[in-house]
Backbone:
């Protein structure tokens, strides 16, 4: 898909290629900024669409009993202005999208399955996604599970020792209470 040509503010005619490049020159920013601009543009599009829906819901057809031509023309003008701004926002979003696609060419795509953590019934993560990415992760996960198992054993031993000490102190205190 190609980007529609930029239109000058005064005539409605497409700009010459030199002026189009000059108009697009400020778009040389990093990917995070482009994504943020794209997100804000989508939010603006949603907001304008909601405003258009509100205008259409409140707009009364000219065949109604309480028809006021001036009010109808005013709302129609607002609606056309919102539609024009929505068109501009879609063009802006197309520019951001094209710029992001141009910047992402040559990057190694990561399959989306690797970005989503899957959990099986036993609570472990699904490890057979990709051998290149998951081999080191599998070893690290195995080491973490071994350390956790050892830690649980040590905690159990400490708990047993604490219980024995508690019982011993209880017995000593009981014998001292009996002597007194």
Residues:
């Amino acid at each position: 898909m190609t980007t529609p040509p930029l239109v000058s503010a005064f005539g409605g005619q497409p700009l010459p290629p030199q002026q189009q490049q000059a108009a697009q020159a400020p778009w040389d920013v990093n990917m995070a900024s482009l994504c943020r601009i794209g997100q804000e543009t989508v939010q603006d599009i949603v907001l304008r669409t909601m405003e258009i829906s509100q205008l259409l819901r409140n707009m009364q057809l000219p065949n109604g009993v309480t028809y006021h031509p001036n009010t109808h023309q005013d709302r129609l003008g607002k609606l056309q202005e919102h539609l024009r701004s929505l068109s501009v926002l879609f063009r802006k979003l197309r520019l951001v999208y094209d710029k992001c696609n141009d910047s992402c060419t040559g990057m190694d795509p990561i399959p989306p399955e690797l970005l989503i953590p899957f959990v099986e019934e036993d609570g472990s993560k699904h490890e057979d996604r990709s051998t290149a990415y998951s081999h080191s992760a599998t070893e690290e996960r195995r080491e973490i599970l071994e350390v956790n198992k050892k830690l649980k054993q040590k905690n159990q031993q400490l708990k047993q020792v604490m219980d024995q000490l508690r019982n011993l102190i209880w017995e000593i205190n009981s014998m001292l209470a009996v002597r007194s």
